[in-house]
Amino acid sequence: MAPLEKSKRLSTNMRYVILAFVFINIVINYMDRTNVSIAMPELSKEIGLSTVQQGLIFSAFGWIYAAMQIPGGILLDKFGSRIMYFISLFGWSLVTVFQAFISGFGQLMGLRLGVGFFEAPVMPANNRAISYWFPEDERGTAIGIYSSAQFLGLAFSTPILYGIHNSIGWRGLFVVTGVVGIIWSIIWYIFYSDPDKSRFVGQDELKYIKAGGAITDDDLKNVDKHKVKLNSQNIKQLFSRRLIGIYIGQFAISGTFWFFLTWFPTYLTKAKHVNFLQSGFLSSIPYLAAFCGVILAGFISDQLIKKGRSASLARKAPVITGLLLTLLILGANFVSNPALIILFMSIAFFGNGLATITWVFVTALAPKHLIGLAGGIFNGCGALSSIVIPVVIGILVSNGNFSSALVFIAAIALLGALSYIFVVGKIELKD
């Protein structure tokens, strides 16, 4: 009997509630990452920030976020998703509220570091919760749904955030977004538990989840404790030509994302002189385009495989196509009409969404005993872009001209595409 048919007859479907909770967590997570970019045009004038300082503020999150990935993962393994997510969500939300009371660069810089510190365990905690609650044959869909929250959530929350800013100012924006997170952290703590400890899950659903291959605490206890010892041979394998190719590609893909998450609102209001409130609604369109790209990427891959194309081509085609579409961001340098600006930006961010299905290459290219380490380097390259991209753009736009910044983003995207074409090359994936 098909798993879906079984699940329809279960007395509870608590795993879908958990998926909704994780989705909301991510929406709040990205809302508190992007609120500073919405506040920045007015905030920078009030406290006197240069564009270089703004770039440092935007990148501060990434510094500590990257540094805390391993410690955050260790704490997550020790305390679990319920406690760690509560601490993380409550912590970054409280720090967000404190941002409403800053008066200078140093204070804001320190608090953005604090946001990065508390948000570090978020993505591993999401994955852990879904791995505990979903059987293996439903997990891919669940991960796809919660992964889309960063784009879909921002598409709908961005106009709301602009509206809040327009009504009560940037200080009020930080207070409101922070309080929302604090309230939600308490709701999470009250209602979330792992399946074995949940009072809301039926016994039949619990059996269904476990029988389908969901991870349990017993599984983790039985995992081989043998640690991989790094030696020159392992390091050479971790930095093989093809792995270096996907590392470069991940930096490029993340680079476009971080432009939109940090500098895009300032670009619209300062460089293109779009009305502040209007820019709030316009900003949501590229996020919707990126969401469509994420969904379409999987569909394109599946269709190519059904038509007999190699799995390697099927997986690489959306990535390369997406990175090349990102080059169209340059079109915004030659137009002043807001509709045309958003059109070029939306095509570029749609391409960014297309290019996000890259984790499959880590599994395909890394030696099995080094997949965890290779994945860490791969993810670290994405985190590195959150540090580098905002700072470089801040330097490039110090003269008030964003044209060179868009050229920079396009150049990074082109580098990523060339890396997948020539450095990664043809690879063998299981069809």
Automatic annotation (TrEMBL):
<dbReference type="InterPro" id="IPR036259">
    <property type="entry name" value="MFS_trans_sf"/>
</dbReference>
<dbReference type="InterPro" id="IPR011701">
    <property type="entry name" value="MFS"/>
</dbReference>
<feature type="transmembrane region" description="Helical">
    <location>
        <begin position="12"/>
        <end position="31"/>
    </location>
</feature>
<dbReference type="GO" id="GO:0022857">
    <property type="term" value="F:transmembrane transporter activity"/>
</dbReference>
<feature type="transmembrane region" description="Helical">
    <location>
        <begin position="243"/>
        <end position="264"/>
    </location>
</feature>
<dbReference type="Pfam" id="PF07690">
    <property type="entry name" value="MFS_1"/>
</dbReference>
<feature type="transmembrane region" description="Helical">
    <location>
        <begin position="51"/>
        <end position="76"/>
    </location>
</feature>
<keyword id="KW-0472">Membrane</keyword>
<feature type="transmembrane region" description="Helical">
    <location>
        <begin position="317"/>
        <end position="335"/>
    </location>
</feature>
<feature type="transmembrane region" description="Helical">
    <location>
        <begin position="168"/>
        <end position="191"/>
    </location>
</feature>
<keyword id="KW-1133">Transmembrane helix</keyword>
<keyword id="KW-0813">Transport</keyword>
<dbReference type="GO" id="GO:0005886">
    <property type="term" value="C:plasma membrane"/>
</dbReference>
<feature type="transmembrane region" description="Helical">
    <location>
        <begin position="83"/>
        <end position="102"/>
    </location>
</feature>
<feature type="transmembrane region" description="Helical">
    <location>
        <begin position="284"/>
        <end position="305"/>
    </location>
</feature>
<dbReference type="InterPro" id="IPR000849">
    <property type="entry name" value="Sugar_P_transporter"/>
</dbReference>
<feature type="transmembrane region" description="Helical">
    <location>
        <begin position="341"/>
        <end position="365"/>
    </location>
</feature>
<dbReference type="InterPro" id="IPR020846">
    <property type="entry name" value="MFS_dom"/>
</dbReference>
<keyword id="KW-0812">Transmembrane</keyword>
<feature type="transmembrane region" description="Helical">
    <location>
        <begin position="402"/>
        <end position="423"/>
    </location>
</feature>
<feature type="transmembrane region" description="Helical">
    <location>
        <begin position="377"/>
        <end position="396"/>
    </location>
</feature>
<feature type="domain" description="Major facilitator superfamily (MFS) profile">
    <location>
        <begin position="18"/>
        <end position="428"/>
    </location>
</feature>
<dbReference type="InterPro" id="IPR050382">
    <property type="entry name" value="MFS_Na/Anion_cotransporter"/>
</dbReference>
<protein>
    <submittedName>
        <fullName>Transporter, major facilitator family protein</fullName>
    </submittedName>
</protein>
